Amino acid sequence: MQSKAITPQEYIDELPADRKEPFLKLRQQILANLPKGFEECMSYGMLGYVIPHSVYPDGYHCNPKLPLPFMNLSSQKNFIGVYSMGIYAKKELCDWFTSEYTKRCKYKLDMGKSCIRLKRMDDIPYDLIGKLAAKVSAEEWIQIYKDSLNKK
Questions:
Q1: What is residue 151's predicted lDDT score, i.e. its pLDDT?
Q2: Where does residue 114 fall: left (phi above 0), alpha (psi -120 to 50 degrees), or beta otherwise?
Q3: How far apart are the first and last CA of the chain?
Q4: Distance from C-alpha of 92 to C-alpha of 147, rounded to nearest angstrom
Q5: How much of the chain exceeds pLDDT 90, in percent?
Q6: Which residues contact 105 (CB under 8 A, 6 or more apart)?
Q7: Each residue's pLDDT tens digit, 70-109
Q8: How far, in Å, CA of 135 to CA of 142, rounded?
Q9: Residue limits of the YdhG-like domain (predicted)?
Q10: Cα separation, 55 vs 45, whole angstroms
Q11: Pick from 9, 7, 30: which is nearest to 20 by CA?
C-alpha cells in the first residue's frame, strides 16, 4: 500500500498500532547499519534508502530525477515488506540471506525477487535485516547498478 506521506515521520505516524513497534525496530536496524553514502527518504510511497544525487548525480535511469534506490521498508496489508535490490541483483547476497534466515526464524521465508514479506510480528530477524543493509557499500551498489545497465 503506497502512502501519500511526504516524510518518513508522517509515514510512521500513519502506521497501525500493531505494526508500529516492529516497523520502528526494523527502521532502527537499517539506519544503524546502512553504510555511508545512503540516506533515508520517502520513495515510491514507502520509506526508501537511496543513494542521493549528491553521491550519484545520474540518479535512477527510469527517472533520473529520482535518487538511486537500494532498499525500502513498507507496511502492507498483510505484512511488513523489506525490499532489497541487493538480494535481487547479487545472487551470493540472496544465498547468504536465505541461509541465515532459516537459522534465525521458526517460520518459512516468504520472499519474492526483492521483497521479504514479514508476516509474523513475533518472528522478525531484526539483526539480520540490519546485517543485510550493511552488506553492500554505496560504491559497490553504484558499480552493480552501472554493470547491470551495461548488460542491456
A1: 80
A2: alpha
A3: 31
A4: 16
A5: 90
A6: 123, 125
A7: 999 999 999 999 999 999 999 999 999 999 999 999 999 9
A8: 14
A9: 19-134
A10: 22
A11: 9
Asked if 51 and 68 touch (Cβ cutoff 8 Å), the reply is yes
Helix (H) or strand (E) holding 139: helix 138-150
Q: Which three cell numbers stand for residue 21?
A: 513497534
Q: Which three cell numbers stand for residue 16?
A: 497501525
Pairing label, strands 46-51, 39-43? antiparallel
CA distance 137 to 144: 10
Question: What is the C-alpha separation between 101 and 118, in angstroms, rounded?
Answer: 11
Residue 106 in grid coordinates: 521458526
| Buried b or exposed e, range 132-143, using 16+ CB within 10 angstroms | bbebbebeebbe
Alpha helices (H) along 83-137: 85-89, 91-104, 126-134
Domains of the chain: 8-150 (3.90.1150.200)
Report the amino acid identity of residue 63: N
Paired strand residues for 74: 81
Q: Which pLDDT score is estimated for 152?
A: 62
pTM of the model: 0.93
